[in-house]
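Objective 1.3, modelling of assemblies. Example input:
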Amino acid sequence: MQPINILTSTAVPLPLPNIDTDQIIPKQFLKRIERTGYGDFLFYDWRYNLDIPDHVEPRRDFVLNKPEYKGSEILLAEKNFGCGSSREHAAWAINQYGFRAVIAPSFADIFFSNAGKNGIILAPLTDAEVETLIQRSTANPKHLITINLEAQTVSDDEGFSAHFDIDPFRKYCLLNGLDDIGLTLRHESDLNNFESQHDQEFWSAPKANEAA
Amino acid sequence: MFEKVWQNHVVAEPAGEPTILYIDLQLVHEVTSPQAFEGLRLAGRKLRRPDRHIATVDHNVPTTSVHDRLVIADQIAAAQVNALRKNCKEFGVEFFDVQDPGQGIVHMIGPELGATKPGMTIVCGDSHTSTHGAFGALAFGIGTSEVEHVMATQTLPQSKPKTFRINVEGELPYGVTAKDIILDIIGRIGTAGATGYAIEYAGSAIRALSMEGRMTICNMSIEAGARAGMIAPDETTFAYLKGRRFSPKGEAWDRAVAHWRSLVTDPGATFDRELTIDATKLAPSVTWGTSPGMVTTITGKVPTLDEAKDDADRKGFERAYEYMALTPGMPVEEIKVDAVFLGSCTNGRIEDLRAAAKVVRGHHVATTVRAMVVPGSQKVKHQAEEEGLDLIFKSAGFEWREPGCSMCLGMNPDILQPGERCASTSNRNFEGRQGRGGRTHLLSPEMAAAAAITGHLTDIRKWEFEETAKS
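Predicted structure (tokens):
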């Protein structure tokens, strides 16, 4: 996982609450066995008009299809972003499309966890703060926003400045690009001890009673 | 209870970091596992505890015929199913293949096998893992990277959620089911109402439910944003589990039951949040919009904009009116349906099929409706066939399918056409969930069966049941 700290970029405004993971990445793309290539399918049903058989046509009025927002690394959304299915493919699609951060008033639990594992900064700001940023990026697609993970701030060159909360350990992992499995295996001897004890508990293992 | 189960599974509590929690069982299916197995392979890691993993195919498998499942036409789906076969063989995981008598939706087979037991921690790369909480297990959905993490270490770093007890008290009125209870709860607290919380469902109405009813409720906990949903184990739970393949036997069984009894929440325990619902006031419910929280009762109307709680809700309503092609103020009973889906891990169990068959008996599917029944597992399918339920459904004009997730999420060919409206016993009604442009109304199996017959959303409380014909 790539470390991340200071990010300055234009932002794509998606002023909609409760954006669920079925919208972020529709189910047909979950059939894939690869871990990459999901950027092409991000918000697929919103990006493309599929009404004509065998013809995929970008919807002109959808924000991701507007050339002025190309290259943006920040997504702006409203409350409860990422609700619904646990599909990590949603975080992969966001990441592989090119977004390194999402700013919204709140995030759904499982998506929150998935984003952390993929080096995406989720910055929760107040409704009013998010609204301001959405207005500025809608009025001016070239408007630049800076996220500083170390300082936990979001700012722009028009005087906007806000603080966001982030769990210190999550912040540490993002800043250093740390892998979860490696971190857990630091506790391997605790795990071995726990496991040999716990395996005695006949009620907890699927196969514990095969012999009995 | 949540606290007790959590504490029993703490491996390490590093300062300033999430707790490392031991995971008793990981359930695996074809959609969220390929990249996890690949990750193990690339890192040269073994799957630490194959005996604590169980796998099956459910999301992607066709339900049309045995042949269609053995030779999957969709190349990408076939590749994914084959990947799971190969991976389970390579890493030593027990695998229930498409035609295995134990195959079914992953959250159906855990309980059927007796693999799901009280006091366990259970995970799966699927948000409806909360289903297993009905047994008093701490069960939750995870992403593919976490699936890999559990495969490699049999643990997960977890930050502890807060606790939320929802008491449902009183006797359920006629025609009101477990599905209606959970739809009511989500409507009340919203789709983010329990974010950051583990819910415990309690109260006399919950106690009165069968294990299947409890599973329906816990299944949809995620739709309220909850990390998990749990119900304390009791005699109903023990009776369900006794004698199943992975249930303890003999003296071990007695010890297990004694342990399980000790998990129940202590009287006087406090929760971060508490809510009490009067079950006697509930009515059959239906979702009208594009989120499980957009719910009303069958005698209700599509809400108007001024009934929305805030600006965000108002925005959601406006979008939903358009997507669902509904007018605010329209009575729900006037909503016509084009399709009916009876199945899913929410309501694809034998009791659900029995209840629906009772409604269907002596009637026929409306000419304007296409209806299908997809039993949640091979076991349920076979039991239903033994009871003659399949004949009731088929002679009424329902399609009788092979087990899988099917039209709940339309990953296999069971999808809605754009604009098609479906009465569905599943768990999500998001835009495009059952097919691009498809319109979903969530409800109970009885209500779905009634809608199939009349061709529109119908109040099950007024239904005229056919008595069993006697020769």
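The first strand of chain A starts at residue 6 and ends at 14.
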